[in-house]
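Chapter summary example: a protein plus nicotinamide-adenine-dinucleotide.
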Amino acid sequence: MSKQMSHLDNIPSTPGKFKMDKSPYIHNRLRWHSSLAKLTFWSFMFLGLILIFFFRSPSSNPLPQDPSRRSLRTYNWGGPAWEKRVRSSARIRSRNGISVLVTGAAGFVGTHVSAALKRRGDGVLGLDNFNDYYDPSLKRARQALLERSGVFIVEGDINDSALLRKLFEVVAFTHVMHLAAQAGVRYAMENPGSYVHSNIAGFVNLLEVCKFANPQPAIVWASSSSVYGLNTKVPFSERDRTDQPASLYAATKKAGEEIAHTYNHIYGLSLTGLRFFTVYGPWGRPDMAYFFFTRDILKGKSISIFEAANHGTVARDFTYIDDIVKGCLAALDTAEKSTGSGGKKKGPAQLRVFNLGNTSPVPVSDLVSILERLLKVNAKRNIMKLPRNGDVQFTHANISLAQRELGYKPSTDLQTGLKKFVRWYLSYYSGGKKAAG
Ligand SMILES: NC(=O)c1ccc[n+]([C@@H]2O[C@H](COP(=O)([O-])OP(=O)(O)OC[C@H]3O[C@@H](n4cnc5c(N)ncnc54)[C@H](O)[C@@H]3O)[C@@H](O)[C@H]2O)c1
């Protein structure tokens, strides 16, 4: 009996539901039922946990869904026809030409740099994930423009190692012009994950592939004036401190500079970082003030102009796109070869950082006055306090280093550059073209 009782002890806690019987057969059945019930119970628990985890994890993720991440999964590439296009676009057509992989080629700066390289006979292959941070139809229009001059843009993400390795297998790029990034200062508060994805993880992934490429390419990449952050010493010089970023965007660009140092130090990659100062011009970025001020002034909408504490002026060192392009090409042309091979450093390699600005900051209210004259429309100005969401009060580049080493000499003033932008804007968005924003 005591033996039987010990069997019963194993039955889960609802003895009233069991009819006690002394038959061993019944006891065995009871034991079997008990095990089955336990097994079923724990299976359901386990299944339930998996379902809870599966359905809850996306919404409990603190980082919002990243459009560029989605794009990583959906692009198609490869095949003989695709490889042929890649090869043809990257073919060098001039003596002493270089072959350049331009990341972010459907972007504002990327389009201009790719077109300029192609014009002088260099081989150019673009790479872009066409994310929807701003109107992708503008990126498609830039793509069509490049297509007409013989530049193919591969659709893909810089986080896609297999794609990058394939590109280096098909073409022995001598240089990489790395411009793909999540740009914009304020959007970082909305979608921080996209900055980590493109500016940090994507950059590391690109460098990982470059370090194993044979030969290793020289890399020129876009940092930003935003690394100067809360620095108050002007004009900003490359030697100034950059440890007080005012936005996550700035922090990821600063991280990029440190990552560049590491890959140069360990693997012998030749790396040049360019700190661009507020680039503007035709085919520009709709999220930038000069662009959306133009749109809103034309629509009769009021525009917000920021001022700092005590009516302090907010000013930017606006730099015209053609000047930036010259700086980029000069950086590529003066870049020394990387020294590593097989993923190993074979000697010291070049590591540089340059400011590419205009050395003439202009108050944002003056920018608006120029636009009013060019558009022949008065702006509805709404003066507001500069919010603490990433913007800094002013930027001003000291460009003497770039002048000395790259022969960089910006030559377009804001009035002249905005005139060219407005002309482009009016022709692009008129004649049945979609309205901006
Ligand atoms: N325009 C400026 O005033 C300015 C100032 C400082 C620094 N920069 C830097 O210069 C570079 C170019 O800027 P822009 O103004 O041309 O910006 P942009 O947004 O027009 O161009 C960036 C391009 O990169 C692509 N991209 C983003 N993430 C990608 C990814 N993970 N994989 C593949 N493609 C990706 C985008 O689709 C876009 O076409 C960026 O690195 C930016 O941070 C620009």
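Key point: The longest strand covers residues 218-224.
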